[in-house]
Amino acid sequence: MIELKDVDFAYSKNAYRVISNMNLSMQKGHIYGLLGKNGVGKTTLLKLLSGLLYADRGTIHVMKDDASKRNPSMLQKLFLVPDDIKLLRVTPYQYVKLYGKYYPNFKDEDFISYLRDFEVNPTMKLNTMSFGQRKKMYLAFAFACNTDILMMDEPTNGLDIPSKHTFRKILSAFDLTDKLVIISTHMVKDISQLIDAILILDNDSMLMNATANEISKKLLFKEIIPGDRPIYSERTIHGEWGIVQNYTNEESAIDIEMLFNAVLLNKELITNIFNSK
Amino acid sequence: MEINSINQFSFKRLYTFTKDLLFINRRFFLLSSLIYFGILVIPYILRILAQLAFSSFSFSLTSPSGYSALSNAAIQWFYIFLITIFVMGSHFSHYKREGFFQSTFLLPLKMSEKFFALVIVYTLIIPLFLFCTNLLAIFVQYLTTYPQNIHLLRDVLFSNWDLYNDGDVLVEVSSMYKVFVLFPIMLLGFYLPYNIYMCGAMYFKRNSVIMTTLVMFFLSLLGGGTTTYAVIHFPKMQISINDSNFLEYLPYLQNVFVPMLEVFLILANAFLIWLSWYKFKKIR
Question: So what CATH class is A2-203?
Answer without folding.
Answer: alpha beta
